[in-house]
Structures are given as C-alpha cells and as structure tokens.
Design a protein that fits this description.
The structure holds 2 protein chains of 2 kinds. Chain A is of the alpha/beta class. Chain A is built from 8 helices and 14 strands. Chain A has a 6-stranded mixed β-sheet with strand order 1-2-4-3-5-6, sandwiched between helices. A 6-stranded mixed β-sheet of chain A has the order 9-8-7-12-10-11. In chain A, helix 2 packs across helix 3, helix 4 packs antiparallel against helix 5 and helix 6 packs across helix 7. Chain B has one domain: Serine Threonine Protein Phosphatase 5, Tetratricopeptide repeat (Alpha Horseshoe), CATH 1.25.40.340. Chain B has a two-stranded antiparallel ribbon. In chain B, 64% of the residues are buried. Chains A and B meet through strand 4, helix 2 and helix 3 of A and helix 4 and helix 5 of B.
C-alpha cells in the first residue's frame, strides 16, 4: 500500500516538524541550533539541568516534555535515529553549570554511542554531569543483562520525577539518586498489532499478520519475543500486567504508577478498556494504583499497539510525580 | 605504486562515496529485513558529509583531511552509523600523524588505527553480524598483503575482497548488536547492511586505483 501522510520532502521531516512544534508552543519551548529543543524560560543556573537525546518520529516524545519541572534540553536526531555526538555535546555545553547536568539516555545502540562520545567531549570541557540510562523493557526478561533491555516510555515519567527534584533545588547527587531509584523500580512491556511506516522511506518497519499480535515489540518495530494470535483486551492486559508487577517485585500494599502509552494508532477507547483490566488485576493482588496516566506520550507513527509501564513508588517519588510542571504535553499545577 | 599521498586518499574516499551512492536502495532494502529500512539513506548522508569534508579540506594535510572526514560523518544524525564511521576515519587520522604520504606499512597501520577507533565504540566482534564482519577481515587482509610485500593498490584490492566475503558471511549469522539483535534467529539468511556498506567502501577504495 502507498504511504498516506501529510508530508513534504521526506528529507526535511525532522527540521519541519521541529519548526512547527516550536512555533505551536512558542510560549513554552524554543528551537535553537536546528536540533536542540530548549525551555522558552530557562531554568536558573543554580539548579541541576536535565538533558536528553533521541530520534524523531516519536512525537510528542521526547521534546514534548521540555519545560518547567521536566527537561531543559532535548537533542533531536533524525527519524528513528540518534543525533550525532557533536550535537549532543552542544546540548550539554549549553547547560554547563556548577550545579551540574542530569543526562538521561535511553538504551538504544545509537543513543548510547552518541552519549558516550559526547560525554568524552564534555569531560574535556569540564562539564559536570551524571548519566541515567533507562532500560526498563522487560521483553528479554526482567533479569536479562542491561544491554539487552531497551529504554521505552519510562524515560518520560523519569524526566518528571527527576525534573521536579531538580526544580526543588536538590544537588546533582540527590537528583541522580532519586532518578536512579525510580529507574531501578520501573518496567515496561510493549505490544504491537500493526506496523508503522518509516515516514522517510515509505515502507512498513516490520510485518505482522492480520490475525497476529506481538508482545515485546520495541518502539522502532524491533521484534519482541511473543508473537501470538490476536487476544482480547482483558487477556492481553492480564498477561502484561502480571509480568510487569512481577518484574518490579510489587507486593500487596505496594503503590504503583501505571502508564498506558498509545503507539499512535490505538484508540483511547482501547487503552481505557485495557486499563480497566489492569486496575482490576492489581486490586485483586492488593496492589494500589497510586497514580495513573493514559494517553500518547511516545508514539511510533501509525503503529497500532501500546506500551504498559509500571513503577513502584515511595512517598518521595510520589511527591515529585505530583509536583508542578509546565511542558507542552504534560502539565501539573 | 609504492606510496600514496593526500590526493590519492581524497580520491579513494570519493570513489567509496560513489560506490555507496549507487547502492543506497539496496542498502535500505537489506536494512528493511532486520531493521527500520533507512541504512541506505543514512549512509548517503554520511557520504554527503565525507564529500563535503574532502572538498573543504583542500589545501590541508592528510591528518586534517581524515579528521574532517571523520568529524563530518559523526555530525550526521544517523544513530550508530555516525559515531562508528566517524571513529573509523578519526582513528585513521590519528595514525597518519604528520606523514605526507603512506607506504604500504603506513597504510596498514592507518586502517588498524581506524579499526581500533571503532572498537572503542562497540564491543561487537566478528560473528556478531555487524560492520565488524567486513571491517576486521579487510584490515587484516591489508596488513597481510603489506607484510607479503604487495603494493598499495594490491593491498587495497585484498582488503576489498576480504570485506565482501565478510559481508556475505553475515547471511549465516544471528544478529547480536543493534536493533536487529531483538529479532534473533529471524535475522538468519539476511546480509547485514552495515557490513555491506563497509564492503562497498573498501571496494571503492580499491577501485580508485584501477
């Protein structure tokens, strides 16, 4: 099938989307140096800055979460591709400050390679930073080596929690400790129903039969582990939430943050139906859904499916989740 | 030919770039089988940067030329392709130091330094179904040709042949790095696009002397 998308020259997708996005939310974000999305009102220099990097094509992620209480800089690559090290270094340099930088990297080969090289450049410039590597995908198994576990939607609640701690004036060590605690207590599992089209190439990025679904599918269509015949919302939800709550070691009395993230073509109707079952399942286990969010945070074009995210929360993490933030795609007052 | 200098190195890069450009569609098609299908266009962007660096480096020295080629490749926003290609060329730049021309020994040392640069970025080894499956044998073949007293063009030809064989061998392998890793056994039978790009580049390097 021919790709149907409202685009112009496929070579200009990323610059055009960034231009449009920064125009649409000019009161909150600004685009500088072509690929850096920054806060319209910069954070004071005495507070820890949050910098992240990642490919485009996943809107509103990651740049949709730049703003007060979350990210200071999002370094954008190209469609599904990490930015080069020099650009990432530029983003870090822009945020150079005595208070330091929390550098949030999603575990994907290109992102990590760019981050490594940018960090070497930053070190020579005397830039103070600490890195958090998100790797909460449990598709290869919750105890699989870190290098096999991808960073999925979990980066976004992590920006929220760490961003709030930074905004409160916590030191780099403290912000890092809070971010890392959240990082170690979160898990995501994705499921796909229909492929996305690479918007520059016009081809589907994977194949899936009409009557099949795949649990464990990554956000670039990287295959997962569990291809199966289509299941109902309740069956799918139960398989996924059982694995996720086990992965974070949730027990009766524990409090969870639960996020259902639509991949692009799955309706809110479906997500609410799935959420209903998740909540029922957790209730039966005596596990509290302390906070929840259902919507599109990190998409993969018109891929059908969703990512189910859970994090085990303590009182301090809940406090930071509830703290004010003001970004184009997440606002808490 | 016993030695090559600035002009020859510039021309081998332009030849490599031409080889990649002719195969952009094929490279993307290989990537579509196990990845997101954009490897060809990403390599095309890398080659834009290489050609731009070659033309803008005119009048500089060999080390600067290779450094600029590496930095240019690194600046493309192409996931792991930029850092890997960039560190290959920047590693080569380190090795030539202040030399104005390279004999076969210096050529082999240059490619070995490029390979060392890539190894700093990835733990991938031969057998992991990555660019390493073409790069390592190419560098090894160039070294062996030099040790056997071959000329620079003969060494590059040996490198090209080894790289192509290495790229073809990836069909029999299961991916252990990059996005394709998640496909596991499903990657069998597909040739790795990164290894193919390296093979095309080395083919271009060799053809520059034909």
């Amino acid at each position: 099938m021919v790709m149907k998308k409202f685009i112009n020259d496929p070579a200009n997708l990323t610059p055009e989307l960034l231009e449009g996005y920064s125009m649409a939310y000019a009161n909150k974000v600004a685009l500088v140096s072509e690929k850096l999305v920054v806060r319209a009102n910069p954070k004071p220099l005495d507070k820890v800055a949050l910098v992240t990097l990642g490919g485009a094509g996943h809107e509103p992620a990651l740049s949709g979460f730049v703003g007060e209480g979350m990210l200071d800089v999002s370094v954008v690559g190209d469609i599904f591709a990490a930015p080069g090290p020099p650009k990432v270094f530029e983003g870090l340099k822009m945020m150079k400050r005595d208070a330091g930088i929390l550098f949030v990297v999603l575990n994907h080969e290109g992102d990590v390679m760019s981050a490594n090289m940018a960090e070497q450049m930053a070190e020579r410039e005397g830039i103070r930073l600490k890195r958090v590597l998100t790797h909460e995908d449990i598709a290869p198994g919750a105890d699989a080596p870190i290098e096999n576990r991808r960073g999925l939607v979990g980066c976004i609640p992590l920006y929220k929690v760490a961003g709030a701690a930074a905004e409160e004036g916590k030191s780099l060590e403290e912000v890092y400790e809070i971010a890392e605690r959240f990082n170690q207590n979160m898990a995501t599992l994705a499921v796909a129903l229909k492929p996305a089209t690479h918007p520059a190439m016009g081809e589907p990025i994977f194949e899936l039969a009409d009557d099949e679904m795949e649990i464990g599918m990554g956000q670039h269509g990287e295959a997962g582990t569990g291809r199966s015949k289509m299941m109902s919302a309740d069956e799918t939800a139960e398989i996924m939430i059982r694995q996720l709550s086990q992965a974070v070691g949730a027990k009766s009395g524990d409090k969870l943050l639960v996020i259902l993230n639509g991949a692009g073509a799955t309706t809110l109707m479906e997500l609410y139906i799935v959420f209903r079952k998740v909540k029922q399942y957790l209730n039966e286990q005596g596990i509290e859904v302390a906070r929840s969010l259902v919507g599109e945070l990190l998409t993969v074009q018109e891929m059908a499916g969703f990512q189910m995210f859970v994090a085990k929360m303590d009182d301090e993490l809940l406090k930071y989740w509830d703290a004010p933030c003001d970004t184009p795609y997440l606002t808490v007052r | 030919m016993e030695k090559i200098g600035y002009d020859e190195i510039a021309s081998i890069f332009n030849a490599a770039s031409m080889r990649i450009r002719e195969n952009i569609k094929e490279l993307s098609a290989l990537d579509a089988a196990t990845g997101d299908g954009d490897h060809g266009t990403t390599m095309g962007r890398a080659m834009d940067a290489v050609e731009k660096a070659v033309s803008e480096s005119a009048g500089s020295d060999l080390k600067t030329l290779l450094y600029n080629i590496g930095w240019g490749a690194m600046c493309i926003d192409g996931g792991s392709t930029g850092p890997l290609m960039g560190s290959l060329f920047m590693g080569m730049s380190d090795a030539v130091a202040d030399k104005e021309s390279l004999d076969c020994e210096a050529l082999a040392a240059m490619f070995e330094a490029g390979l060392a640069g890539v190894r700093k970025q990835t733990k991938a080894k031969v057998g992991d179904k990555t660019m390493m499956d073409a790069l390592e044998p190419a560098v090894k073949a160039i070294r062996e040709a030099c040790d056997a007293g071959k000329s620079v063009p003969e060494a590059l030809a040996a490198g090209a042949e080894a790289a192509m064989k290495g790229a073809e061998s990836t069909k029999e392998l299961v991916a252990r790095f990059g996005r394709a890793k998640n496909l596991g056994e499903r990657t069998l039978g597909h040739q790795d696009p990164g290894a193919t790009s390296i093979a095309l580049m080395f083919k271009g390097f060799a053809e520059a002397f034909k």
